[in-house]
Design brief:
Blueprint: E1 11-16, H1 25-36, E2 43-50, H2 52-63, E3 71-75, E4 91-99, H3 100-109, H4 114-129, H5 137-153
Parallel strand pairs: 1-2, 2-4
Antiparallel strand pairs: 3-4
Helix pairs in contact: 1-4, 3-4, 4-5
Length: 163
């Protein structure tokens, strides 16, 4: 019996709306892969870079907050285990929706580079797709520890420390 084929790296599909700066798909893939760890292998992630109006619409619809936000995460439910021949297809994890303008404004207000803030939000959103949350203090500490550790690999400072 031959071994199952090796899983492919994380596949990231980036769709852009608007003219605000956004990092390359390669940067987004690197940050998300680092956050997802071994769960990135054979997985697929969709990232939509949106304008404030779309972010506001989605945030109002799914979170009841009528204002644009930096990142929204939409995890997909776990699919049943596929037959070995179907395992070569990417396993969808979910979608991240990131408002480039909000990210830019927050980076300026927080006195950090826009690229570092993008990295943080991609990592943060990817962790939400894995079930990490920050509704309770213990969960928030666990999620923040993971974010800080992943950001450190990219030479990015702890975003939760005051400047």
């Amino acid at each position: 019996m031959k071994p199952p084929p090796a899983r492919t790296p994380l596949q990231v599909d980036v769709m852009r709306e608007g003219r605000d700066w956004a990092p390359t798909a390669a940067d987004i893939r690197a940050w998300a892969s680092a956050a997802l760890g071994r769960r990135a292998a054979g997985a697929e992630l969709a990232v939509r870079v949106v304008a404030p109006a779309e972010s506001r619409r989605l945030n109002a619809r799914y979170r009841g907050r009528a204002k644009p936000t930096n990142v929204l995460s939409f995890p997909l439910p776990a699919l049943p285990v596929a037959a070995p021949e179907a395992r070569r297809a990417p396993r969808p994890l979910g979608d991240l929706v990131i408002c480039a303008r909000v990210v830019r404004e927050e980076a300026r207000q927080q006195r950090k580079t826009i690229k570092a803030h993008w990295a943080h939000l991609v990592i943060h959103g990817a962790l939400h797709l894995l079930g990490y949350d920050h509704e309770r203090d213990a969960e928030a500490r666990r999620m923040e520890r993971r974010e800080v550790a992943v950001l450190k690999r990219f030479g990015i400072a702890n975003p939760y420390r005051s400047v």
